[in-house]
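Why run this: before we spend reagent on co-expression, it is cheaper to look at a predicted model of the complex and decide which construct boundaries make sense. The entries below are exactly what would go into the expression plan.
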Amino acid sequence: MSLSMLSQLLVSGLSGSFVLLLTSLGLVIILGYMKVVNLAHTEMLMAGAYICYYAFQVAKLPFVAALAIAFAASFLFGVVIERLIICHFYGKMSETLLATYAISMLLKQGALLLFGKNYKKVDYPTSEVFTFGSVYIESYKVVLVGISILVLAFTFFFIHKTKIGRKIRSTTQNRSMTECLGIDTKRVDTITFSYGMGLAGLAGAAIAPISTVTYSLGESWLTNTFMNVVMGGVSSLFGTFASSVIIQESISVISGLSNSVTAQIIVLLVVIVIVRLKPEGLFTSKERR
Amino acid sequence: MRERLKKIPVNKYIDLALFLFLVTFPLYQKTYWIYVMSGIMAYMIFALSLDLLWGYTGLMSMGHSVLFGAGGYMVGISCAYLSEASWIKYDRLPWFLTPLSSEIGAFIMALVVPGIIALFIGLFMFSGKIRGVFFSLITLALAGIAELFVINQSTYTHGDSGITITSRTVLSNSADKRMTDFGFYFVVFAFLLAAYLLCVLLMKSRTGKVLKAVRENESRLQFLGYKPASFKLFIFVVSGMMAGLSGVLFVRVQGSINYTAIGINLATLVLVWVAVGGRGNLTGAMVGTILLQVAETILNSTFSNISADFAQYWKLALGVIILIIVFFIPKGFVGTLVEAEQRRKDRNRKERILRKGGVNGNG
Amino acid sequence: MADSKVLLEVRKLSVEFSGFQALTDVNMKIYEGELRVIIGPNGAGKTTFMDLVTGKTTPTAGRIYFDGADITKKSASEIAKKYKIGRKFQGPNVFDNMTVKENVEIATEGYEGLFRSIFFRKTDAFKERVNQILREIELYDYRHFMACDLSHGQRQWLEIGMVFAQNPKLIILDEPTAGMTAEETFKTGEMIKKLKGEHTIIVVEHDMDFVRQVAEFVTVFNYGRLLAEGPLEEVQKNPEVIAVYLKED
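The model came back. Tokens follow.
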């Protein structure tokens, strides 16, 4: 492999890392702060992509508006789902997995029946291509990196600097104590869950231009996002970022050498080994257990 | 005698009825249904294998189909190789698949390979510190990748068209030894009965009790001198081999295998069967499978001429079914029955204790 | 007591959790056949000490010797099985969705290894032992109940029974009477006193009535250090101990 090809792979791997970070963030938040594995997460990506298609491609709204609509709609959907279904199963792992899987099935089959099997294509909101010597990158992928960083920064701010973020963290730390302080932890749960769902919708809308929008879009993200969560752990956003980079760069480089399936298999094996060595995820300090 | 009959839990009666039903089923049914039911029985073995893992030990594998499909593909590849299927372009099997060049070898490989996969994952995953949910997520990722893998390895697996098998016996691949649907039904039945009895024996043994204790309170168990990891590894390998066996039987019944037999769809479908029937009592796994699969077959034949999208509507319905189950009967049909029986017995016992005027009441 | 054999000895035992010094330089000896009561305010390091002895936590410094062997970094299951230390946790820690009898059977020694468990058949002696323990903890009539259906006190007894079923050389009881009624607490005290001679027992307790009922020799922990040690009457007069307890109340 030539140096220029390697640098091309590394660059696209890096932009891919930010995309993976963006697509995993909602999952990480819901798992990290609520101990809920949201199997409907990747189907929310799909839903977000469809929203982007109809808002941006069909209705010709500005792309930013499409992102905002995707976030808002997914957030609202999250509220409904949490109040109707998820809130009954906190602390029950099997039931949560089954229930969220059921939701994902409804979303996916619903999309198939509503929108059919045809692929939809969303245009690039920005069409330039940057070239640096032999390395090129579409400008939209740079925009995606920007969106990803913005979302990460906002999430960090939201969790650590706002009042509601403080409530979310304290609910995770000690629910009964938080309740004693007069905080409605049920509302906190709803907001946390919906925020995670909203991020999934937003991410789905953001990746719509680089994907083919179809009912099975969620499926293609399932393995990578879940591997990412397992490897990065849930206790720090930095862990998620680091594991996004590791996973996506490895996949990108190994794909260049052989093919993407082999790359995914190797990465999965690495994740299994890492989980064995660092069960709490990368970049977490040793806590009293 | 009556006392002893009373002691037998209600689900054992259901088991008996189920097996009586299954053994007489082909005597009055058309070939089509015999064929369908053979496939369902293979699935029942698969569901049993998951119940050992999920219901008894508390390990919710979300990628159990990988082990099912691994078994199935061993036989599939072997059949394609031996019958020199037209799409085959390779001359020889790679060294690690050479056992597939004989019929018995393929059968053994179909049990060993899933066992090895389970062993590998188990060795890494079953340290005390890894939370249960990570096991589910890793197995889920595995199922997603396995599906891509078999499509990708089209040299041996014929990509997404899958492998069609010309013959059907347990071991043989030659076309002139083909068994009828009627005959093969009883082969699958015998395997189901054997698998069921194995599960019953295993779960009645001390090992079964320890596995239940792993599910209930793994960390406590360590302080009683057990190594939960070795028990988990053991049951995962046993369950994996059993899943491999069910894969073999299913492929033989269906006469084909493709990527759907190894992917996330089947992995989650089997979870639904076990959840509907109820986990942790073997009966539930079998009942759930038969209920949902029979329902799907009947509905499919009724509606498929009205709408071509039946499969989609069925999946939609499955989603609703899962929600109904987790909301209203989280222990599944059989699980709820078993629990009701336990409650009734508890009440009687409590009355007896109070009559004896023994220990203080129990709050 | 000095002439009997030392069963458990810890030397300069310390442990630290991300900067928090939970236990500092603890030296202690437990003699065979002894009933030792460990007291101390919340956060004094009593439970941490038990965690270290039973292999739940590994110490940052110091050594633990049991019956002549160094068990400092052994795993929990090895300590339980090979060295025979049994432990009852704070708050009942049992197998909820299993029957009372199954709980005791799991605890009864005999088939801890995987292969032995597969081929293990219950002998009459085994069954008799299980029944005997069920009677001792007054749960024989409840043997077919699920553990989660018992009352809190009964669940505590069940766990005490499980620890005895292990037939350990050293029994550690972490707050065995927590959440019990006065009557149940007294019964528990009598249970423990009955078993005193046969086993070496360490009890961690808060309830001073209970301590007076069973204790002879006590060890007091405070802020992760060993504060005082001696016969109960002596320790009660120790001004340092009084200060700690007065401050606490």
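The mean pLDDT of chain C is 86. The domain at 38-57+73-216+234-248 of chain C is CATH 3.40.50.300 (Rossmann fold). Bring this page to Monday's planning discussion.
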